[in-house]
Each structure stands twice: as C-alpha cells, then as structure tokens.
Input
Amino acid sequence: MIKAILFDMDGVLIEAKDWHYDSLNMALAKCGYKPISLNDHKTTFCGLSTNTKIHMLSQTNPAILNDSKKINDLKQQYTFEIAKQRLKPNAKQIDMLSALQSEGYKMAVCSNSIADTISLFLRLAGIDGFFDFTLSNQDVTNQKPHPEIYTMAMQKFNLKPKQCLIIEDSKHGIEAARASGGFVMEVSNIVTHEEIIESMIELKDKIPHIVEKIKNQAKPKQLSHFVSDVESHNGLVNLRILRYKCAKIMRGIKMLRACLIINREKRHDFRKKHLNLRP
Output
C-alpha cells in the first residue's frame, strides 16, 4: 500500500526546466562560453545539478572549471529572477496537494536543485506548507541519477520502497527512482491530482480487488496476462497500460454477456413459437 509520495520538483511540481536552461546559458554567455543546445539540454543535461553540468562541459572545455563558481552563482541569480517574475500559485495544484494530504499521504520533495532554489520555488508557488520535508542535492553525497536522495527520503519516513510512489519526469530522475526500488510514475507535464489518484494510487492499491472482480469472469489466458503485467514491472508499474488492459477485459466480458442474453432470447422465442413451451 502506498503511504508516501516523493515528488521531483522541476517538471513535476513546477515547470522550471526551461528556466534552468535559459539561466545557465545566460551565465555561460556572460563568462564567454558556448551555450548548451536545446537538444543537448533535453537529452543529456536535464535533471542534473548545475555543478554536474559544468563538470560535464569541462570534458570538452577544461578551462570552464576556472569559472565554475562564477557560472554557478550567476545561474542561480538568473534562475531566481526568472522565478520571481513567472512563478505564481496554481489553484489546481494547491487543491491537489491539499487533497493528497487529507487522504493521509506523507509527501516530500526530492530535487537535484539546491536547497535555496527548492525553498524559493515552493514558497512562490504557495505549496511549501504541504511537505513533510524537502531534500536537495546538498543533502546527499551522490546526486541523481544515483538513488541516494530517494532512499534517504524512504528512511526518513521509515517506509519500505514499495510503500512509496515516486513521481519523476527526467531521464536521470527516473533512473534514480527505479534504482531506489519504489513505484515510479513517469510524467511529461506538471502532475495532476487525477493522474496520481486514477493512474497510480487507485489502480496500484486496488489491483488485488480488480483481479478478484474479474478472475471468475475473464478467460484464464486474459487474466494470466493481466496478472503477469502487474508482477513483471519490477517496481515500475505502468498503470495506464494496466487500466487499458483491464478495461479491454471488462469490455470482452460485457460482449460475452450480451451474446449470452441474445442467445437466451433466441432460445426463448424458438420455444415459444415452435414448441409452445415455457422458457
């Protein structure tokens, strides 16, 4: 049973990935270095800390390490300026977190950003009061894609991995989440309450009830495929696929029932017309 939800921040709670991209490129340009391409940002750098990005850039331009502190400081300054201009509270997001909190879920933010960035973003978004704690890249020795930040959160909650739902969007974050052993929900946009409840918590917690509901109705082969899908994801439960397959099975059951009803009515008509017998 899911007892805690661990949120990444950028791209999950707050759409700030482009802000980080723009602010880092502004800092690099200010210091005389070539900016990162949008493609490289999306495929390689997204989800990593600024220090990690600088060290990766130093592999082709070692001189950048001499200006790493200046680039980092400028990047944070530009990020804060952008956030203060663009980041506003979102009523739907506040309602989502309030609902999850009222439903009894523990919640934490586990981000590769620094603590000051997390604090500012959550405060500007008006959601800083919903989380039991936040963890930044400064709280761990190994940053994402290492799972340390998620295993640390699980330990702080005193929960097992399978009691935690992790919501991530970036390649490196998803890798960290999977390695932690928790259940993983991959998103491509800011997560919504409906997605969490309908696509993850509801089906994850109710899978045994769903199986129980259909096991006496579905064909054995269909049911075995459904159950094997649940068991074979090794922590990554793609519940949208499971829900689709469950709905497909239920549609098959309805069609079978409809055929049985039609056949029964035909038999009734035949008996009444030709045999003059009661059904």
